[in-house]
Each structure stands twice: as C-alpha cells, then as structure tokens.
Amino acid sequence: xxxxxxxxxxxxxxxxxxxxxxxxxxxxxxxxxxxxxxxxxxxxxxxxxxxxxxxxxxxxxxxxxxxxxxxxxxxxxxxxxxxxxxxxxxxxxxxxxxxxxxxxxxxxxxxxxxxxxxxxxxxxxxxxxxxxxxxxxxxxxxxxxxxxxxxxxxxxxxxxxxxxxxxxxxxxxxxxxxxxxxxxxxxxxxxxxxxxxxxxxxxxxxxxxxxxxxxxxxxxxxxxxxxxxxxxxxxxxxxxxxxxxxxxxxxxxxxxxxxxxxxxxxxxxxxxxxxxxxxxxxxxxxxxxxxxxxxxxxxxxxxxxxxxxxxxxxxxxxxxxxxxxxxxxxxxxxxxxxxxxxxxxxxxxxxxxxxxxxxxxxxxxxxxxxxxxxxxxxxxxxxxxxxxxxxxxxxxxxxxxxxxx
Length: 405
Ligand SMILES: *[C@@H]1O[C@H](CO)[C@@H](O)[C@H](O)[C@H]1NC(C)=O
Description:
Blueprint: H1 2-16, H2 29-42, H3 48-61, H4 68-88, H5 92-119, H6 133-146, H7 150-162, E1 186-187, H8 189-192, H9 195-217, E2 226-227, E3 238-245, E4 248-249, H10 251-256, H11 259-264, E5 277-284, E6 287-292, E7 299-307, E8 309-310, E9 315-318, E10 321-323, E11 330-333, E12 339-343, E13 346-348, E14 352-361, H12 368-374, H13 384-398
Antiparallel strand pairs: 1-11, 2-3, 3-4, 3-5, 5-14, 6-12, 7-11, 7-14, 8-13, 9-10, 9-12
Helix pairs in contact: 1-3, 2-3, 3-4, 4-5, 4-6, 5-6, 6-7
The protein binds 2-acetamido-2-deoxy-beta-D-glucopyranose.
The site of 2-acetamido-2-deoxy-beta-D-glucopyranose has 5 residues, from α5.
InterPro entries: Asp/Arg/Pro-Hydrxlase, ASPH, IPNS-like_sf
Protein name: Aspartyl/asparaginy/proline hydroxylase domain-containing protein
Family: Belongs to the aspartyl/asparaginyl beta-hydroxylase family.
C-alpha cells in the first residue's frame, strides 16, 4: 500500500514536468547545491523513494538546460518502482504506466544530454554523480523492450555499440573487457573446462540429484526457498537456493544439506566467479523470464539440469540461439548477452524444473590480471603460464579463432 501511495504521488508529479525544458533561471548555484543533496540521498539504501519527488521538483524549477544527470536518476527511480510492481504481481497496468515514464524520462534526459554535449561546458557539478553510460543505455533499452517496443530498444543499444562501449548489441555488460575470439552464445563443457573438471562435473550430477531429493523428502524443498524477486518474470513460480554468493559459502546449506554439491562446485574444485553464484534455480511450468543481459562479462554461467524434464516448447534463448535442458546434461552461456527463458510445462520428474547454476570466471578474458580478478579466492594458486597453457588448449577445443600475435 505504501508503495502504491508513493507511486500515485510520483505519477502526479511526473505529469507536472513540462515536456520541454523549463525556462532558464539566472542563478544556478543554489539549484546545484540542492540537487546534489538529493542525488546523494538517492544513492543511500532505499533513499530513492524520498528523493524522487525532490528530484522531480528540482528539474521543474531548475535552470533546466543541463539537468540530464538528475533526469537519468528519475528514470532509474521509476525503473526500480516498475520492478517492484512486477514482483508484487497482478499490477501489470501500473507497471506499464511506470515503464512509460521510465522511457519518456530517459528520452528527455538524452535530448538534454546531447544539447549539453554540443555546448562543450565542463562546469557541471552533477557530473559528480553521473551514472555509467552503459547503465543508462541498458536500462533504457530494457524498459522499451518490456513495453514491446523492440525496434526502439535496439536503437538505444546500438548507440552503445556506436559509442564504442560494446562490441555487440546483444551483449551489454556494464564494462566491456577484452576477450579472445568472437565469443559464442553457448559453450559445451569441454570448451571451457579442463578434461578432469568436465569429468568431475558430469559424474557429480547423480550425487547432486540425491542431495536435492533428500532435501525435498526432509520437507525443505523449493516451496520453502526464496522466491526470485528481480522483477524479471511474469509469474511467482521461480525459486532459488544459493550455495555460494560472490565466493561466500552458505555454511548451513552446504554443511547440512548439500555437502557433495558444495564440494564439487567449491573453490578447491571449481574456478568460480568472484562476482557470481552457485545456486539451485527452480521453475514451475508456465514461467516466463523476460529478455535481459547480465551486468558482467567476467563470468560465464553453467547450467546443469538435475530433475524435471521440460516440454518440447520450453527453451532458453541466448543471443540468437535457443537450447533446451536435458536432464543430466549441462551447458555454459555468456550471461552478459541477452537471454530469455520460457518453461511451458514440466512433463516428467515432478512439478519442478531443477537446474544447478554455477558461475565460473570467464576463461576467455584476454588479460591474465582480468582473469585473476574475475576468479574467486580460495582456489589453488594461479600461475600465469599454467593459465595461458590451459587457455590455449580450451581455445583450440572451442574452435574460437585465436588472434595472430
Ligand atoms: C503491458 O505491456 C505489455 C507489452 O506491451 C503488453 O503485452 C501488456 O498487455 C500490457 N498490459 C496491460 C495490462 O496493459
């Protein structure tokens, strides 16, 4: 209820923002000082709710010729509200309304930004709080896509390519890092892991399944797990159970329920991603996850299907390629590239499609130091020569073109 009340207030305020830039006022320093205070508040945890009305008022009153940073924050605030409405469920109309505000506000910000660029001014205090250009383009395009405005979304993402931020429109990390080869949407295990790791993963699936089944039998199945609330899917039928989060081992879950799984996918046996997870991801039939591109290319994502065969028209799309989960099988994909999931029904093995997800440090990062940073701590010592040799082997196997030196 609190959410809806503040939403109504903000919607009302939004309507009051004039469609064209307000008239310039002679002094801008007071305006700047106030605005910086609100931008700072926006960045505190859950500070966006209090600061949104103030930021909106500030754009309305301000000198107006250059408030694009503030406008991008306002758009970002609307986007957070749209996600909350999505995860609240059953508020699609309100969500769409809010997404339209996201889109309109980004568009207004962009035109002010372009004007500002052409003026070549450098005295603009709001730059202290400027968002990454990639963040802005990612979210603006996502909002357009959620509204079904695909062509407009692509135009926004293409800007990122034209501005040299990304190599491909489909893959939109916050920060593009150099990799070897062109990259693929999906990889087989042999293309990203040394043979002994492939064997360890494949031979672990049965044990992982046993641990899952025991958990369910003990009354600790997916009904008791955390519902996914990123605001990316249209139903409340996606749950997760984390085992490792950013390298941090979930002791209770690992020691009491998933000992073997945590060992196979723990730092001693698996080069996990410093920013990434090992987790179970469970979906019921009739679950749809919107297209989205992950924020980092420093990891690749492994999926191993543990239980629950899906219907023939269920799939995961990454970039231009679709795959299905075969129970007992695994694949890896580049999570920074756009992906989308549709599970129409689970046809065998119970009501859930159970996948074990493990993020690995991206073995195709070109620079050894980038790789070292991408990898979680606690594993074996990492030696540049050994890593380069193993990367060479993987590159040969994956057929990824190795650039001539
Ligand atoms: C919200 O927007 C989506 C995408 O355009 C559309 O499919 C859906 O019907 C809209 N929902 C409502 C309730 O207007």
